[in-house]
């Protein structure tokens, strides 16, 4: 009997920055090391604004791969007939034009977070992807990690009851005072600031634990309140906090924050349920371990506590790549795990939070 051959997705890579490097390195990790045998990956083209950068990138991160084309424009990647799917790793505000061009050329798209600068741009991309019957996914890699899959199973198996309050933070010190003004974290033209760069992760946990919880029945956040501290350097948000209420079918609140000027370790995420807690160890984009605590009765003592740790070969970006390959193989236009609706909610929340007036005090609502 012959063993079925894995479906191999042929990738074109857009940009040669930090995350493009991480993603490419993971595409080259042997899928069997993570138990994947049904799909695989091949890099067929890398596009950069400079051909030298594309050549250098291939030499540095994919030295043993044959026949990867190095291009000095992104358009040449979109035009390459061997490319099935395009990975977009440019700064946020370029995602729209890059994804649009890829879709117009008939390519499936995996686009880095934050998917676009605003919800209107994202909706336009999704409309085009549907019209052209192409797969599109936000590269929310955390959704596909084994830890996340296990946490979701535990959270929804019933013992913990409904979620009540979630706290999540992702902050770091980007030393913004030493960055050039055109750095993507500082430049408003590149979508600079903490919210679009770090905010997707605390919000991801709120979407996973509150929005996706079966008791929530897919109800969107009933209200959003945001507050922003801007940096005087370029006026982008340096620290942002936002709360989301889920009150249609739950009585739950998410308290979320991100900052690019916190010189201390993160505290991760805590999800508090009627009958216990889930504690996600930092960093929340790639948590190494999760602790689950169970009360003897609501408001009672913790009588059981379990910690589960997770490890794998590679950086953790290959799990999202496997999802794209499976979806493309199966003719799906969106992922069941991180579909279009969740990316839209994410961008709509960011739109609302960004509306706070210049004094940083905000009180906004989403319908
Ligand atoms: N999923 C994850 O874990 C992570 C995701 N990200 C996301 O990926 C995106 C890129 O982040 P990151 O890799 O850190 O950024 P980098 O600045 O390291 O890389 C961005 C790349 O985009 C290309 N680019 C095109 N136009 C511009 C421009 N005007 N200014 C700067 N670069 C430009 C460049 O590649 P070239 O010169 O080859 O064209 C550049 O190297 C962001 O949206 C970010 O949110 C970032 C880090 C981690
Ligand atoms: O996606 C990300 O995850 C980790 C952060 O350090 C980075 O800035 C961000 O883009």
TrEMBL record:
- Mind telling me what this protein is named? D-xylose 1-dehydrogenase (NADP(+), D-xylono-1,5-lactone-forming)
Q: Which reaction(s) does the protein catalyse, per the Swiss-Prot or TrEMBL entry? A: D-xylose + NADP(+) = D-xylono-1,5-lactone + NADPH + H(+)
List the keywords (alphabetical): Oxidoreductase
Ranges for domain GFO/IDH/MocA-like oxidoreductase:
149-272
SUPFAM superfamilies xref list: Glyceraldehyde-3-phosphate dehydrogenase-like, C-terminal domain, NAD(P)-binding Rossmann-fold domains
Q: Gene3D superfamilies this protein is in? A: Dihydrodipicolinate Reductase, domain 2, NAD(P)-binding Rossmann-like Domain
| Pfam assignment, any one | GFO_IDH_MocA_C3
Q: Which branch of life, at top level?
A: Eukaryota
Which residue ranges does the record assign to the Gfo/Idh/MocA-like oxidoreductase N-terminal domain? 10-137
Q: Which GO terms describe its molecular function?
A: D-xylose 1-dehydrogenase (NADP+) activity; nucleotide binding
- Species lineage: Eukaryota, Fungi, Dikarya, Basidiomycota, Agaricomycotina
InterPro entries, A to Z: Gfo/Idh/MocA-like_OxRdtase_N (IPR000683), Gfo/Idh/MocA_domain (IPR050984), GFO_IDH_MocA-like_dom (IPR055170), NAD(P)-bd_dom_sf (IPR036291)
Family named by the database record: Belongs to the Gfo/Idh/MocA family.
State the organism of origin.
Answer: Pycnoporus cinnabarinus
